[in-house]
Amino acid sequence: MTEERGDVQELSDFELVVYETVAEIDKGGGAAGIEDLTRLIERPEEDIWAALSHLVSANHLHSTAKGFVLGPHDWAP
């Protein structure tokens, strides 16, 4: 069974920045917390939460107890 993801072309430029930042942290074995994201992206927390919400609802990211990690993807680490 495969998990459905939203179309990446539906993401805004800012949502792609948030996704790529989470991906960098995830590939290092971590999970991205909101503090990490606001420090690295330097945008208002409200903007980052909105992007995270859309990315999670589109199944590009997953929310865990430790922070945000990548959802299903078809590229190798």
SSE topology sketch:
Blueprint: H1 13-27, H2 34-41, H3 45-57, E1 61-64, E2 67-70
Helix pairs in contact: 1-3
Task: Tell me what you see in this structure.
By secondary structure, the chain is mainly α. The protein contains 3 helices and 2 strands. It has helices at 13-27, 34-41, 45-57; strands at residues 61-64, 67-70. The two termini are 21 Å apart.
Q: Which key terms come to mind for this protein?
A:
77 residues; 2 strands; Arc Repressor Mutant, subunit A; 47% helix; 3 helices; globular; two-stranded antiparallel ribbon
CATH architecture: Orthogonal Bundle
DSSP strand tally: 2
Helix and strand content put the structural class at mainly alpha
According to CATH, the homologous superfamily is Winged helix-like DNA-binding domain superfamily/Winged helix DNA-binding domain
Query: Widest sheet: strand order?
Result: 1-2
Radius of gyration over all CA atoms, rounded: 12 Å
Largest sheet: 2 strands, antiparallel
The helix content is: 40-55%
Q: Any idea of the CATH class? A: Mainly Alpha
Element string (H = helix, E = strand): HHHEE
Rounded mean pLDDT score: 88
Q: Compute the separation of the termini in Å.
A: 21 Å
By CATH, the topology is: Arc Repressor Mutant, subunit A
- Summed up, the domain count is 1
Uncertain spans: none
Give the number of helices. Answer: 3
What is the molecular shape?
Answer: globular
Beta-strand residue percentage: 5-15%
